[in-house]
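haha ok so turns out i had the wrong file open the whole time. this is the CORRECT one, sorry everyone. sequence first:
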Amino acid sequence: MKVLCVGSDPEENRRVAAALEGEPGTFHVVTETDPVEAFECLTSRDIDCLVAGNDLPGMDGVAFLESVRETHGDLPFVLFTGSGSEEVASRAISAGVTDYVRKRPEGGGLDELVDRIRALSNDDETATGRAYDEAQFEQFIEAFPDVVFVIDEEGRYVDVIASGKRPLLYDDPEELLGNRFHELFPAETADRFLDAVRNVLEAGEQRRIEYQLEVQSDTRWFEARVGPLDVGGDTQTVFWIVQDVTARKRREQEYEQIFDGVNDIIAIHDPETGEMVDVNRRMCEL
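then structure:
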């Protein structure tokens, strides 16, 4: 199996190559530090798998992935990075990443990377050539401990993958499968969620949505990143990555109560321009 490794650090590229080529008779590794030269390599050589970091010269790993997908739609692409975030995860899923491996301190993560690529070499189908599989999402959830929903164009839950010991909505998230928004939430909330799904599918790009729900006898605030997800077939779907932002919202509410509750005059200015951007209620009463 011929593997192209693209990363900005030549020494790290050599470590990745050594780890892969340490597997007897399995891998032949080509390394590049420049994504432009990596593209030239893709066109001039028969590459079976591509491994890339996220911090590349001139672009990040997800932008590189998006460019690769334009000409090599079925090429397995593994993102190997320690600079990930929830935003990186959702962009990578939307762009069609095959797998994600998190770098660990002191060169950690290489054994896991070898295992993942070995699994790809033993697979009869490339991961991008079939509908997404749950394992792909589980790797993102391991690195970014939120909740991922897969939802179709009718607002039906196709899949639910939750991390941690306490699911956000139900003790058993599998209860969501097959249900639509309007079977689970108040009509106004369900309409808003369905509009978000259809707007994302129509625009073909990611959107954010904040909302409040009664879950497990508690009222919580959530922020979701919603993006198109190609699972094959005629049904259109989106991924819906959820983060509980209740603590942040409560801090904001406490700040607002203090800001408008004191008898002192408070004005907030932009530190760069000096422009007044906000005042409290007491100042407005003058």
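The radius of gyration is 23 Å.
again sry for the mixup
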